[in-house]
Write a structure and sequence with these properties.
Tetraspanin_EC2_sf; about 290 residues; Tetraspanin/Peripherin; two-stranded antiparallel ribbon; mainly alpha; transmembrane
């Protein structure tokens, strides 16, 4: 193809491509908002009863509770910003106003760099975060001291975590020897004949807690207890959103790169068209003078 044919093609399809890219951009903006809202609304890790425990987990000077909430809020804010930018891109594509496209291209490029950095940092620190979380959870479980929902905030948070996430201990409980052995609850002899708390039993709720009894669960640890460790339960719960975050983040980055190319191409084509029209008018005027 010669230059004229290429410009004709891009002039025809460029605006359409830019519109399609921004519709996709709009959809992925929503895809960033939804996980953030879902974690805040439905995830047991940020439940008000469990949050005090999560806030005792600190990583790099930031506690786990605030980290999770901050990530959720960031997803919602970035998703909203992506939607607004996509609308700006659609306005620019439809109106052909170069000012809109200049602003749009600049903002999208900045968003691309921010998300590239965020995704890189998340992938880089994920394995460190896993090791840190398990080690610190085991340490915090040593502070567990009461099998009830009133005496201690830390113990109450653990008990709600066990019930809400159907887990027990940090590592999976397989018998009477388990993570609770070094907890204040056991070492102070407060546990009596129990080896795991009532909150680890299946079927117990906050309403039935004070009257619930199942010695096969709490004493002999042979049946009727949550077999999954809480580290695995928390990691599974959060990793589902982590996968969404990475997948959507990388896809949005690709779309953003295409959007910048489309915006630059559209603006270039508009300038080419204006220049061509001006040249034709000049030639026409010269012919009329002759």
């Amino acid at each position: 193809w010669n230059t004229g044919q290429k410009m004709c093609f891009t002039e025809k399809w460029g605006p359409i491509f830019l519109k399609v890219i921004n519709v996709i951009f709009l959809i992925f903006g929503l895809a960033l908002i939804v996980p953030g809202v879902m974690i805040l609304a439905n995830n047991d890790v940020v439940n008000s009863k469990v949050l005090p425990l999560m806030k005792q987990l600190t990583f790099g000077g930031i506690n786990m509770g605030d980290m999770i909430i901050g990530l959720c809020v960031s997803l919602i804010v970035v998703g909203t910003l992506v939607i607004l930018v996509s609308l700006l891109g659609l306005i620019g594509a439809c109106s052909g106003n170069p000012a809109y496209l200049d602003i749009y291209g600049g903002i999208v490029l900045i968003l691309f760099l921010i998300k590239a950095f965020a995704v890189f940092m998340w992938i880089e620190n994920n394995s460190k975060l896993e090791t840190w979380m398990k080690t610190n959870l085991v340490s915090l479980l040593n502070n567990y001291g009461s099998d009830d929902l009133t005496t201690s905030e830390t113990s109450t948070s653990w008990n709600y975590l066990f019930m809400l996430m159907s887990c027990c201990g940090v590592n999976a409980v397989t018998g009477t020897t388990n993570d609770f052995d070094s907890s204040a609850w056991i070492t102070s002899s407060s546990a009596g004949s129990k080896h795991i708390p009532t909150s680890c039993c299946t079927g117990v709720t906050s309403e039935t807690y004070s009257t619930f009894t199942n010695t096969a669960c709490t004493d002999s640890v042979t049946s009727g207890y949550n077999t999954k460790g809480c580290y695995d339960a928390i990691y599974t719960s959060l990793s589902a959103y982590y996968i969404i975050f990475i997948a959507v983040g990388v896809t949005v980055m690709v779309v953003e790169a295409l959007a910048v190319v489309a915006a630059v191409s559209k603006k270039h084509n508009d300038r080419y068209s204006e220049t061509s029209t001006s040249e034709v008018e000049d030639i026409s005027k010269k012919k009329q003078k002759v």
